[in-house]
Amino acid sequence: MRKEVPLAIAFLTGTVVLFEYFLQPLWKDSKIWAQLLQNWGIVVSGFAMGVAAWNLVTVNLRRMNRQRNSEWYNPLVLLVGMFAMAGSGLLLGEASAPWKFLFSKVFQPLGTAMFSLMIFFIASAAQRAFRGRSPEAMVLLISGVVVMIGRAPIGEQLGAWAPWLADWLNKVPNVAGNRAIMMGAALGMVATAFRALVGIDRSYLGGGE
Amino acid sequence: MDFLMKLGNTDRRILYIILALAVLMPLISPMGLPFRVSPWTEKFYGAVEKLQAGDIMLMSIDYSIGGAPDVHPQAEAIFKHAMRKNLKVVFVAFVTEGVEFGNQMIIAAEATGKKYGQDFVNLGFAPGVEVAISAFGQDIYKPFPKDVRGNVAQDLPIMKGLKTAADFKLITEYATGIPGPAEWIRQVQTRYKTPLACGVVTMMGPQTEAYYQSGQLVALLSGLRSAAEYEVAMKAPGSATAAMDAQSMGHIALVLFVVLGNIAYFGEKSKKGRR
Amino acid sequence: MSTDLGVWVAAICTLAMFTFLYKDNTVFRTFQHLYVGVAAGYGIVFQYKSIKNIAWDPLTKKGDMLMLVPIILGLLMFTRFIKGYSWISRWPIAFLIGLGAALSMKAIETDFVRQIQATLIPWNSIDNIVIIVGTVTALTYFYFTVKQNSLVKGASTVGRYVLMMTFGASFGNGVMGRISLLISRFQFLFTDWIYIIKK
């Protein structure tokens, strides 16, 4: 029963939604049921964040053991940041100054700065590893360079050919390749979804009991 | 041989400094390189321009903090365009950060005299990604019963006549990943046929182009460059336009690194071949 | 230089992240933990509000008893932390998987049928021919189970080159996107913090 009940839940839920979209004339009430299930899904998804937060708190409380961790203060910083942000939002509201301060002066700069580091690593990797070792690699390299030059304003100073070629690469061969990838991915997505619905793929149940 | 090897194995910190200077110098001392407005941006501009005063447009702010500098300027420019045309704008978010980005734009517009609840509203965030988008399409008020200011959404003047996604004149979505154009096309555009236009991070541009060419998207903007073009189209250059010179020089730096790396590689290869 | 506390805090956060460019260090790791904490706290606020607005208020203020079902399902997710009862948390997960799987099946229409329709264009221009040939050959490249005769191998090779152009375009666009993130940080540091760039 520990596996059969969740498999049945997944199957029934998915079937109602599929009926509503593909076979609605066969079951007129499927729309009401599908809407209800989706509204329930929004609420259940909200609880998932709560699970993640609880897990974060328990893991970091364990990591704060000074005897075992030299940087024991890092988990403390994490928890202080978490409670400060959550506390200011829940207790003081989103219009409050502490909330706005934490979002625009802490969260936003940290997030943007962290992701902006990637360009440096891309630059370093491009210099070391982006080599035309084979004809295919050469094609990839030239395409990348053409797009980089053509899509920047400086490329337009080289002549009309640079932006035209960059646009052509984006509009024609890129679309052909991405379309093929998209079609393959769609087939894979549908196959995986079908396997999950009928219970062939049970990986989401996890192991153990 | 030694020189070529050094060229191919330059200390990464030197590369970082060169890149940082290449991006910083044009910001301090702008070159003012002109750039054209691409057909993609013209299409998006035209899609907003053809709406009439009082038409309701949806802006789904689905970008995260990490990609916001690439997409937020697009949303800002389009929102300014919408306010200029006296359109009504409903903000939603299926990514938590989208709520605050929407609030930032609303606060700026309120300072110009526009009214919350009449000219725009921020309905907040709904969890569940694709499930929430699908639920939103069928009934706007199920995932968003209240707005961010605690008002009952249905009671707001701007929401009069809105029930499903089909009631919007134009849906615009701004994304850095999931949810993105694919989810909106699957759950909303295909079903309700509402015109859907998307602004995405530059990296997502190539894969989203296929949706644009198949007609599933009426318009597509891709990254900061598109935001700058939109500002030029509106004759209101802003921070995106100011960033274009730095973008150019950053690209030149990257291309230089790639070229130098390949010169070193082919040089070493030919020397080894000669031996 | 700015005298605003908020600007200084933001500048310190930015520079702390940039210290990683020299090498991994404790300052970076500490601010990284701060980022994760603040991000989690931010998410908690909106998830709580959503549950309250969509389920709790309708249940308690309007008597919508059907909302008990998702609230109970959601609470059952926490049983994964209780030894001996974690199998119960499979129920809400299965519910979400069923929903997500069914919704994602619409990809057969949007990502498959519509893309095939979009590829059935007239052979009246070079661009159209390249798109049709490129799509078919790129699909052939992924068709590993068919007998690799000379036609299939040839088509597969052409498809590989088409895919290389696709990935090259993706790389070029990816670089563009990342540079804009760096530009925004520099614009902040040298406009709002140190007044070097004119507004």
Helix-residue proportion of chain A: over 70%
- How much β-strand is present in the residues of chain A? under 5%
Strands of chain C, count: 0
Average of per-residue pLDDT values of chain A = 91
Q: What is the helical fraction of chain C, as a range of percent? A: over 70%
Number of domains in the coordinates of chain C?
2
- Total of helices of chain C: 7
Q: Nearest-angstrom radius of gyration of chain C?
A: 27 Å
Overall SS class of chain A: mainly alpha
CA distance, first residue to last residue of chain A:
11 Å
Largest sheet of chain C at a glance? none
Q: Report the largest inter-chain contact.
A: A-C, 126 and 114 residues
Give me the number of helical elements of chain A: 8
Taking pLDDT < 50 over at least 5 consecutive residues as the criterion, the unreliable ranges of chain C are none
The coarse overall form of chain C would be flat
In this structure, how is the largest beta sheet of chain A organized?
none
Strand content of chain C: under 5%
Structural class of chain C: mainly alpha
Give the N-terminus to C-terminus distance of chain C in angstroms: 14 Å
Defining key terms:
heterotrimer; A: mainly alpha; extended; C: 199 residues; mainly alpha
Notes on the protein architecture:
The complex is a heterotrimer of chains A (209), B (275) and C (199). Chain A is mainly alpha-helical. Chain A has a domain at 1-63. In chain A, 79% of the residues lie in helices and 0% in strands. In chain A, helix 1 crosses helix 2, helix 2 crosses helix 3 (73-92) and helix 5 (135-150) packs across helix 7 (161-171). Chain A is extended. Chain A starts with a helix and ends in an 11-residue tail after the last helix. The mean pLDDT of chain A is 91. Chain B folds into two domains: 2-26 and 245-274; 39-240, 3-Layer(aba) Sandwich (Rossmann fold). In chain B, helix 4 (68-84) runs parallel beside helix 9 (223-233). In chain B, strand 2, helix 5 (97-110) and strand 3 (120-125) form a beta-alpha-beta unit. The mean pLDDT of chain B is 93. Chain B has a six-stranded parallel β-sheet with strand order 3-2-1-4-5-6, sandwiched between helices. Chain B is 52% helix and 12% strand. By secondary structure, chain B is of the alpha/beta class. Chain C is 74% helix and 0% strand. Chain C is flat and about 65 Å long. Chain C is mostly helical and 199 residues long. At the A-C interface, helix 1, helix 2, helix 3, helix 4 and helix 5 of A face helix 1, helix 2, helix 3, helix 4 and helix 5 of C.
